[in-house]
Every structure is written in structure tokens, then in C-alpha cells.
Amino acid sequence: MALRITDECINCDVCESECPNSAIKQGEFIYEIDPKRCTECVGHFDEPQCVAVCPVACIIVDAQCEESSEQLLEKYKCLIEHDALKG
Ligand code: SF4
Ligand code: SF4
Fold first, then answer.
1. In this structure, what DSSP letter does residue 17 have?
2. Residue 33: pLDDT band by 50, 70, 90 thresholds?
3. Which of 52, 54, 73, 84 has the least C-beta neighbours within 10 A?
4. Domain 3-86 classified CATH 3.30.70.20?
5. Global pTM value
6. Nearest one of 4, 15, 19, 74 to 82, comparing CA atoms
């Protein structure tokens, strides 16, 4: 499952640079995670890096985006290929 940032986000900016998939960006009001780019850090790390650094624990699993670990690994591989093609 992709992760989601709740409205408890204090816009501290710590998580954005920690994401290995560039899935986190400043949104209109708070930081947001692009579910198409979030692999729960599968392929890069053993645990979600954004969750590890968030000072207010406002990053949660998005139940709307249910994915198996195989699907997350496949997404990771697609992102690597896609980003390599973009240069
Ligand atoms: S779980 Fe990993 S891939 Fe997903 S947004 Fe957080 S840091 Fe990025
Ligand atoms: S680390 Fe947490 S509080 Fe800070 S910008 Fe990211 S989601 Fe928001």
C-alpha cells in the first residue's frame, strides 16, 4: 500500500528529501505522497523512511491503495526504468 500524509502534517519538510522515489512533494496545504511513486520504500529500504523521520507521526498506510509486496517491488522496478529513460 502507498502511504498517505494526514492533515496533522506541520510542513516541516523533513520527509521530502528522505524519499528514495521522489514521491513526496509540498501540496497546496500540506505535504503529499504520490501513490504512483510510493513503494513503501520496497526495493530501497527495510522500512518507510518518511515514517521514520516524521516528527509528528502523521504518515499512515492508505487503505485505498492496497498492494502486495510483489506489486510494490514491480512498481519499484517500473520507476527505476521510467526514471532512467527520462535521464
Ligand atoms: S514510504 Fe518510502 S517511497 Fe513511500 S513516500 Fe515514504 S519514503 Fe517515499
Ligand atoms: S515529516 Fe511529517 S510533518 Fe514533516 S512535512 Fe513530512 S509529513 Fe509533514
1. G
2. very high
3. 84
4. yes
5. 0.94
6. 74
